[in-house]
């Protein structure tokens, strides 16, 4: 059976039921007809792991049980497999999305060499590093979960109107935040206006602005303007298809979670809610710093 790519591997420790441990059998996944797991680690099994590379698929109890049956010749009920998975420290989670076009080598290069070099430059030149990102929100994007009776799907009222709003924010590892909110589409004019505000806000401190490769960030007009203001601001692009390396993505995720709990009926109400979110976070430098301490953004702690 072909396993998933090895970008993320999860170890399932080797457990032995007492009746097989006594017989000296080294079995990775144990079978009990009742579906109950009674593990007993033997001296031979305690130091070994079976690497199940569970990346790239949605692994359910049924799938893992089928894998165990195929690889090790043992059978589990779904309930029994669920108990085993919980016993070894796994939980059923909504996975992060990763683009198949992402280049692991480019991401490693950014994390281990490019970004640390940028930090050194910032320190030597007295510059500030900001991570920025643009986000668009619409009322039909605002979804979440709520409690309800079993078998009865709860209904949540929302507007049927179609409208959207855009925002862009920039955050620094020391806890600063700058933002802008606008109703029009995200274009070069909006982006450069935001850059001008950043320059004014940092009052002479050079800015290293880290962001993704959005076409607006790479447009001809943007390149010309950046060349004219090279002493004040520089753009540095993250690897393609690697939004998880941008701490500002977590700001956007928080924004959408907050909006999901609100009843939005019009553009003005949405704009008020979006601005309120950014203003609140702007006053919480500790929360902003926390965006740089997530598992995929902790590399920025070198700044």
From TrEMBL:
A GO molecular-function descriptor: nucleic acid binding
Identify the residues that the record assigns to the Winged helix-turn helix domain, covering every copy.
Answer: 56-113
Where is the Tc1-like transposase DDE domain positioned along the sequence? 129-267
NCBIfam families, alphabetized: transpos_IS630
Name recorded for this polypeptide? IS630 family transposase
Species per Swiss-Prot/TrEMBL record = Nocardia terpenica
């Amino acid at each position: 059976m072909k396993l998933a790519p090895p970008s993320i591997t999860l170890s399932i420790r080797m457990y032995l039921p007492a009746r097989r441990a006594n017989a000296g059998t080294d079995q990775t996944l144990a079978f009990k007809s009742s579906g109950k797991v009674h593990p007993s680690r033997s001296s031979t099994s305690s130091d070994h792991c079976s690497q199940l590379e569970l990346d790239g698929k949605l692994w359910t109890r049924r799938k893992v049980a089928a894998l165990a049956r195929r690889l090790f010749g043992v059978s589990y009920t779904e309930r029994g497999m669920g108990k085993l998975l919980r016993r070894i420290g796994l939980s059923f989670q909504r996975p992060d999305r990763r683009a198949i076009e992402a280049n692991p080598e480019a991401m490693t290069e950014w994390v281990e060499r490019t970004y640390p070099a940028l930090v050194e430059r910032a320190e030597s030149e007295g510059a500030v590093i900001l991570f920025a990102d643009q986000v668009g929100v619409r009322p039909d994007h605002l979804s979440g979960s709520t409690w309800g009776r079993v078998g009865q799907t709860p209904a949540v009222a929302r507007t049927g109107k179609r409208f959207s709003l855009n925002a862009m924010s920039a955050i620094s590892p020391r806890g600063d935040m700058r933002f802008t909110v606008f109703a029009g589409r995200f274009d070069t004019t909006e982006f450069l206006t935001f850059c001008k505000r950043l320059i004014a806000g940092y009052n002479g401190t050079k800015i290293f602005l880290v962001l993704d490769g959005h076409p607006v960030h790479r447009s001809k007009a943007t390149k010309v303007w950046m060349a004219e203001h090279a002493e004040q601001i520089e753009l540095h692009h993250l690897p393609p298809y690697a939004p998880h390396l941008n701490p500002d993505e977590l700001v956007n995720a928080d924004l959408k979670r907050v909006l999901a709990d609100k009843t939005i009926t019009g553009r003005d109400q949405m704009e008020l809610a979006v601005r309120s979110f950014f203003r609140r976070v702007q006053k919480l430098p500790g929360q902003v710093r926390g965006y740089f301490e997530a598992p995929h953004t902790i590399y920025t702690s070198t700044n």
